[in-house]
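Field reference: sequence -> structure
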Amino acid sequence: MNNDSIKFKQVLKIRTYRKKVDARYLDLVWEWEDEFKNLLGISFNYITKIDDYLDKIIKRTGINFSSLFSPNCYEFMWEMKARLKNHVYNRHNLIPNIVDFHVSKDELEDFYRAYSKNPFILISNLEVLPFLQENSFPKKIYHFPLSLADRYRISPTTQFEKKYDLVLVGRQNPVLEEYMKLYSEKNKDFVYVYRVLKGEASSNGSQKDMSFDYYTSKGEFLGNINNRNGYMELLRKSKIGFYSTPGIDGGEVRTKGFNYVTPRFLELLACGCHVIARYKDTLDTDFYKLNEFCQSVNTYYDFEKQMDKALKTPVDMKKYSDYLENHYTSKRIELLKNIFEKEKIKINITNC
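Structure field:
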């Protein structure tokens, strides 16, 4: 594609859902957007009800006229899931950054059509690039790995007071959870924190009616922790955190067989936690060097051995801090600038 022919201002903005969606699972995206906005000195283009209305018409008619309503500048947008239908953001000025790619080979033609007008595609999972290349993806794709916001930067001397042996946050791996129950029965002094989820998200993704109540295994109620700061503070109090890639132990159907590294791995390191993990070796786990921090647990014996060691051994914060320097969001901003140079897009980092 010849970018010189595009009649857009050489300016970048972030296309965001933040004024439209009330969903805690997007707090992480808001952090990435804030880092991009502040470090690049750019601004937001907010998604509105008009965008939703146009999107419904495009999906219903199959006719993509979104370029007629697109702003006169380049936009960068985090997409939580790969789309399989033509949509209002399939346009020449928008650069999509796909977080979760759950697309089977049979769905690739639909995926291709959904991104036919975008100048190029960014994808977080390194596994996906050879998969698309082997299946003749007709557009340029770049690996754009997930990151941790710079606000969580640690140093070799960072210390956290560890109050609990283990904290269970978010979706848990069923195998690790079962091993944990056996371990707890054998070790009566072992104290872990678990979550009780109350309520359900509404159909539009709102989580206002949901409550995340946390308790210790000794029966202590820690309170309702519904925000990002509370989540990170709880991890900082834990000696150990569980981690697993999403496409194993029953998750294969949801992810279409892909196994990628999620930001929780980076969060655990930034909070000074030992990591007990289950994962398959993939291009993405190799990229994040998981095996240098945690060997995948395959038996209860492995689990017990790793738990005993983690409870007695301090974390190597220098190793953690050195590693994370390559995975903060500011590093991804440098990567995006390099991609723009390759695409011969000379972005003027100022507001439209």
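Note: The longest strand covers residues 73-81.
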